[in-house]
Amino acid sequence: MKAAVLQEMGRPRPYADSKPLVIEDVALEPPGPGEVLLRIKATGLCHSDLSVINGDRPRPTPMVLGHEAAGEVVECGDGVSDLRPGDQVVLAFVPSCGACVPCMEGRPGLCEPAAKANLAGTLLSGAKRLSRTSESLYHHLGVSAFAEYAVISRRSAIKVDSSLPAKEAALFGCAVMTGVGAVVNTAKVPAGCTVAVVGLGGVGLCALLAANAVGAVNIIAVDTNPAKLSVAATLGAARTVLAGPEAVAEVRDLTGGGVDFAFEMASSVPALKLAYDVTRRGGTTVTASLPHPTHQLSISPTQLVAEERTLKGSYVGSCVPARDIPRYIALYQQGKLPVNKLLSETVSLQELNEAFDRLADGKSIRQVMMVG
User: Could you read off the pLDDT of 194-206 as tens digits, one per residue?
Assistant: First the structure.
């Protein structure tokens, strides 16, 4: 099959010239026990992929990237009896073992074996099913969907309505899970609360849509890109604020002292500090972004205590994918979560390098690679 292989991290921009992703012929082994072979139909381009390309999120290489995807079941390995060829699935980039303490607590996004496998670049079983000539290739988050086919753990696959267009279904595997889940699961935003969203990529705009859906009021969108602020205004933001030296004062003025909930989705420590600073006394700041692991945030413990602030991380939107992805799809199909409005354009496997330039430049919200 054809796949996009990242040979090394940190190649210079523009990627159209340095070509960090090389389209190659790759061998894919059949699915093992508890695994599934998929034909990839659509894969979203996410900042988490970009963070591996530019080295902000170190991973072993060579690796086949891509983690926000929808596909069609082709073959099931031994022990997989609840899927059949032709089923459409959305892929969860953290498979759940079901047996570790976080999984048993209903927090599969924190699955311990999955975290180890994802960091090592393997499937949940520890296997690698990708290779070229005699060299094995690493899997990205157990998915590796910048390819024509993928072998994944059954625990990475969520069966969904086959009538849902694949380019829309793919978004539910990361952008929707992460952004909507941060609002609904991590923060549990009540109706009538004020919300700020800092960083208006696909995940941030999904958080904005979710805040609107749960009945938040005076939703404020913050970004450095005026074009994204314009998009946010069409998706339910009551006010938009250009990130900069005056942004904190502006948000505080608009909300009488700060918002009840602030969400940071920009993968930037300054953005997280801005989100923390626009949160009112007693309020909650949630971050779902992943800047370089060496970057640090400095806050005042006195302020944290005396103002009873909450600063929370949100990974995979604190979701239970098998429960939440069908729920979010149902909300979309009812017109209450119009995530299709986030689609920028579709690209081919051969156009990925140029598409990641657009993502890095903030010129797109959610591009989707279509196969076939």
Answer: 999 999 999 999 9
